[in-house]
Amino acid sequence: QGQLADSGGGLVSPGGSLRLSCAASGFTLLYSGIAWFRQAPGKRREGLACISSTVSGDGFIYYEDPVKGRFTISRDNTKNTAYLQMNMLEPEDTATYYCAASEYGCPDLFHYSMEYWGEGTPVTVSS
User: Which residues pair with 98 in a beta bridge?
Assistant: First the structure.
C-alpha cells in the first residue's frame, strides 16, 4: 500500500528557510503529478505548488501567487522523493504542510482528488 511521508517542518524565524521532503513508499512517483498544500489553523487548505511527471509528462511546474518567487518545488525520481524549498518565510506561512500525489499532471491535478496524501509537517514562522 502506497504512502507519502512528508517531513522537514519546524520553527524558523521570519526571513528564514526550510526544505520539506515528501518520500513515497509502496509505489513510484515517476508517473505522478506532485503537489504541496498547506492548512493554517481556522483556514481552508490551499494548494501552493505542483510539478508534473518528468517521465509521462513534461515536468511542468506551477506556483500560486502567495509563494511564487519564494518557494521552489522539485522532484528526485532516483529517490522517489519530492521537495519544497521555502525561502523568505513569513509569519503568514505558518501552517501544516502536506504533499500529495496525483495521476494527473500539473496544474490540472488541483481539480481532482489526490491519490495519496502525506500526514503533514508543521511549519511555524515566528521570532
Answer: 37
103 secondary structure, DSSP code? S
Let me know how many helices (H) and strands (E) the chain has, helices first: 0, 11
Report residue 56's pLDDT band, with 50, 70 and 90 as the boundaries. Answer: confident
Q: pLDDT tens across 89-117, in order?
A: 999 999 999 999 999 999 999 999 999 99
| Helix, strand, coil share of the chain (percent; to 5) | 10, 45, 45
Report the pLDDT value the prediction gives residue 90, as an integer from 0 to 100.
97
Phi, psi at 93, each rounded to 5°: -85, -5
| Residue from 5, 114, 8 nearest 71 by CA | 8
Of 6, 63, 47, 46, nearest to 29 by C-alpha is 6
Cβ neighbours for 107, distance < 8 A, ≥ 6 positions apart: 50, 60, 62
Picking from 34, 29, 10, 33, the residue whose alpha carbon sits closest to that of residue 99 is 34
